[in-house]
């Protein structure tokens, strides 16, 4: 069993602080998006408050539509034999599916909020 002394504690503290600062720097730097038309681009569309709620929602729906179109195109390409990378096809299809499911959940929450507001007494 190792004994706990101040030098060991300070060394562990410094290591944790260095890891923490490295993580903060990594979080602050824009990460490259490995997925073409992936979720990162949808998040960027959602974070753009310039056009208001309607423009943000329209942009997010456009991104989901683009993801589904790309998934459909790569699936058809695979079926024709032009693409042999099944992992890329499945990844694109799952990305489109996750985007669609997220859109459905947002729609459901908006409808629920609308119903709650409409049932409020005046």
TrEMBL record:
Keywords (A to Z) from UniProt: Bacterial flagellum, Cell projection, Cilium, Flagellum
Main location: other
Listed InterPro entries: FliE
GO cellular component: bacterial-type flagellum basal body
Cited Pfam families: FliE
Localization annotation: Bacterial flagellum basal body
Gene Ontology MF term list: cytoskeletal motor activity; structural molecule activity
GO biological process, one term: bacterial-type flagellum-dependent cell motility
Domain of life: Bacteria
Family: Belongs to the FliE family.
Annotated HAMAP family: FliE
UniProt xrefs under PANTHER family: FLAGELLAR HOOK-BASAL BODY COMPLEX PROTEIN FLIE, PTHR34653
Name by which UniProt lists this protein: Flagellar hook-basal body complex protein FliE
Organism expressing this protein natively: Rhizorhabdus dicambivorans
């Amino acid at each position: 069993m190792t004994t706990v002394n101040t030098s060991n504690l300070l060394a562990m503290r410094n290591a944790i602080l260095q890891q923490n600062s490295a993580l903060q720097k990594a979080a602050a730097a824009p990460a490259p998006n490995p997925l073409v038309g992936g979720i990162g681009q949808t998040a960027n569309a959602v974070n753009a408050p310039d056009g208001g709620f309607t423009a943000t929602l329209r942009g997010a729906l456009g991104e989901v539509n683009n993801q589904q179109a790309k998934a459909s195109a790569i699936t058809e390409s695979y079926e024709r034999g032009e693409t042999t990378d099944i992992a890329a096809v499945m990844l694109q299809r799952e990305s489109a599916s996750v985007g669609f499911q997220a859109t459905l959940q947002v729609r459901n929450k908006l409808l629920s909020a609308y119903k709650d507001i409409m049932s409020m007494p005046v």
